Each structure stands twice: as C-alpha cells, then as structure tokens.
Amino acid sequence: MKKLAIEKHPNGYSHPEVLSPVDLTEDENVHDEHVPAPVKIDELFRADPRPRPPGKRRPGKKTKSDTSASTEGSNSSQFGDFVSQELRLKREASERAFQASKSKDDTITHLEELQFLALSTKDLSDDDAYWINIQKQQIKDKLRAQMLRGSSSNSQAEDSDE
C-alpha cells in the first residue's frame, strides 16, 4: 500500500507537483522504480580500472636509512627533554606562586593577630572582655611557640656552622 506524502511550503500552501512516494509496507521484496536496487559488494570493490603498464612494478615501501633513524631518535629524545623541562619549569613556577601566596596569607594573619592583641577591653562588658582575653592568651601562646621554634632552629644552624 502506498500513500503520497505532500510536502508543504513554509508559507503553508502545498505543491501537488512535489509529491514523493512513501512505502508503507514492511515487505523488503517490493520493488519500486523510485527505490534503487541494492548494490552488490563485488560492484563496489572490483579490480583497478587502470592497469599498470607492462614491465612496471608497484613501488615498494620506503625504508628509513640509518642516518635518518638516528636523527629521528635524537629529535624525539630532544623533544622529550624539552617537554620535561617545560613541565618542570611550570611546576616550579606554580610552587613559587603557592609559597608566595602562603607567605602573604601568613603575614596578613600575623598582622590581624597583632591588631587583635592591641584591642582594648576596658569599655566592654565583663563577658565580652573575658572571651577576648582568652583569645589574646591563645595568640600569645602561639607567638611564644613560634619564637621558641625560631630560636631553636637558629641555634641549630649556628651549631652546624661551627
């Protein structure tokens, strides 16, 4: 059973001359003049239509000479060295950037702690002053520990110099 599909123009009117047949049957054995016959594989992959002239052989595969093989090997190792050096430089740059950012953050934290230590508690309520004094004591303990670590590492450095 066949029906004709009417293609509509974008403006909405139909063109009766633009009818295309639509096959509504599922039977594959039905042949229509509008449907091409199946292509056979032998027709697609047949012998070369242009035969080679007699006496002329097909060119062989090219082989690399010993000098080109050694040059290419050195080029690939040079490229590998170049890539590894680039990666190392990028890694070192990112490590330096991280260390600079960490140092900056540590400096800002240290300055904020010193500013907190300078905070006066005389105008605050007793409860607020109590909590601020606890925080101040924690900051002082931390700074003392850092000073002790710094002095012990300096004394170790002096001992190793002697």
What does this structure look like?
- It is a single chain.
- This protein has 162 residues and is mostly helical.
- It is 57% helix and 10% strand.
- The chain has 3 helices and 2 strands, in the order E-E-H-H-H.
- A hairpin with a 5-residue loop joins strand 1 (2-8) and strand 2.
- It is elongated and about 110 Å long.
- Residues 53-62 have a biased composition (Basic residues).
- Residues 66-79 have a biased composition (Polar residues).
Summarize the structure.
The protein is mainly alpha-helical and 162 residues long. The chain has three helices and two strands. It has a two-stranded antiparallel ribbon.
Strand order of the main beta sheet, please? 1-2
What is the CA–CA distance across the termini?
106 Å
Q: Tell me the number of helical segments per DSSP (H or I, 4 or more residues long).
A: 3
The total count of strands amounts to 2
Order of helices and strands: EEHHH
Which consecutive residue ranges, at least 5 long each, have pLDDT under 50?
A: none
The radius of gyration over CA amounts to: 43 Å
Principal-axis shape:
elongated
Mean pLDDT: 75
Largest sheet: 2 strands, antiparallel
Please identify the structural class as seen in this structure: mainly alpha
Beta-strand share of residues: 5-15%
